[in-house]
Amino acid sequence: MELFLPKFNSVFSIDCVIFGFDEGELKILLIERNEDPFKDWWALPGYLVGQDESIDNAAERILYELTGLRDIYMDQFYTFGDVGRHPQGRVITVAYYAMIRLNGTKDLKPVTNFARKAVWIPINDLPKLAFDHSEIFSRGFEKIRNKISYQPIAFELLPEKFTLTQLQHLYEVILNKKLDKRNFRKKMLNYGILKELDEKQKGVSYRAAKLYKFDKRKYARLFQKELTFGK
Amino acid sequence: MELFLPKFNSVFSIDCVIFGFDEGELKILLIERNEDPFKDWWALPGYLVGQDESIDNAAERILYELTGLRDIYMDQFYTFGDVGRHPQGRVITVAYYAMIRLNGTKDLKPVTNFARKAVWIPINDLPKLAFDHSEIFSRGFEKIRNKISYQPIAFELLPEKFTLTQLQHLYEVILNKKLDKRNFRKKMLNYGILKELDEKQKGVSYRAAKLYKFDKRKYARLFQKELTFGK
DNA sequence: ATATACTGTGTATTTATTACACTAAGTAAT
DNA sequence: ATTACTTAGTGTAATAAATACACAGTATAT
């Protein structure tokens, strides 16, 4: 019965909002486009999806090709489908986000020449972006701002070992407000998902703080049974 | 610069998971398809999006055409894009959900004949569905289950006037667990978004319960400043 | 009058949230 | 070695929210 139906073709894209935290600033990954439309513009890493790849795979591939970043787990957060969003016609885009630690990932090398380069840009200093990418970014930022309020996902942005003060600063940057030091520490330690290390911060010109690690197992256990209503 | 670029064409669809609450049961809207592929199958109300409509508008139009329901506010919740999900080729689908009260909406009349009929089916009694619609439903259900845990959205499902017991039953059905009567009432009344009416339930063979109304304004005020981390 | 079925209510306990300020420890400069 | 500087690290009291738990009251039906 399916044999006589016409085959459909689709053109749609993926765009990625990749957050990183560096030098006390929240940043996202941008590329400089090397092709029309919007040649020479800054844009989110994004491209058309192939006919034979799932959107999740496409997201991984595209991020890799445009930035050189591999094995980044991304979550879909919204699909943008306004009629006029793409100058070449009807192209909807599925937006993904990820939060990653960028210790070794400062040297970004696109592997296609569709992107001239890929760069971390502070979110408070974003240029005008191609297409509706500014709106996509805003929504993505909103997404992590909401999510961090009920799930301690901020660890993904930090180096493996971090101090509580660094963690707090990250929260403050994402939530855009000051937090109380004692209450913040109490709350975080109460989650029971931090491992205190026997190490201290190095290279600071003042008393070094203790380093902590994030305990993935306990985190997983905790946030399975989360989001409950209680009895 | 854009003049010389080829025009793209897209084929993609919208699917709607519309929740209703009736006779103590949570239900969703299904249609019986009258066209290939999956002719004669049960499916979520869904169809292809036109070239010249935004996806939000398409969602409204499609729901209307397939069920006769108008002016239903829906939210996008996920986009499904597995390669093999549509037998005619690559068709991704943007899924929307809504929670509605179905007092006057029991008589559903599709206005195209793509849908033979539209029917409310209890979610515990769903037939096999076309395409990947079972998965889409599951995700949609998960979505409202999560959402209700931090936002009292259940009112949208109830008649305008309802008793606290009815509200509690609805929560219990969505969350799939028993709640404590006194604690539930305390919590709901504490939100301050319920208006106690001077009316009582009618037609019951026992003491009638007070009726309540949902106060939209207070709700809006309350859930603007929600989702905060505190100081 | 009686049985039935659901309504409506309070309190004590535990847990989480908030507000708030000083001393201790290490580094750098002299 | 003293001093100045900068951040680390800590506790408590007050308030608010979540939980556990049981029974008398009221409308209806017979």
Fold and architecture overview:
Chain A is α+β, with helices and mostly antiparallel strands and 231 residues long. Chain A has five helices and nine strands, in the order ββββαβββαααββα. The first copy, chain A, has helices at 55-67, 133-150, 164-175, 181-191, 216-224; strands at 12-22, 25-33, 42-43, 46-48, 75-80, 92-99, 115-122, 194-200, 210-214. In chain A, strands 1, 2, 3, 4, 5, 6 and 7 form a seven-stranded mixed sheet that branches. In chain A, strands 8-9 form a two-stranded antiparallel ribbon. The mean pLDDT of chain A is 91. At the A-B interface, helix 1, strand 5 and helix 2 of A face helix 1, strand 5 and helix 2 of B. Chain B binds a DNA duplex (30 and 30 nucleotides) through residues 163-165, 180-183, 185-187, 190, 200, 204-210, 230-231.
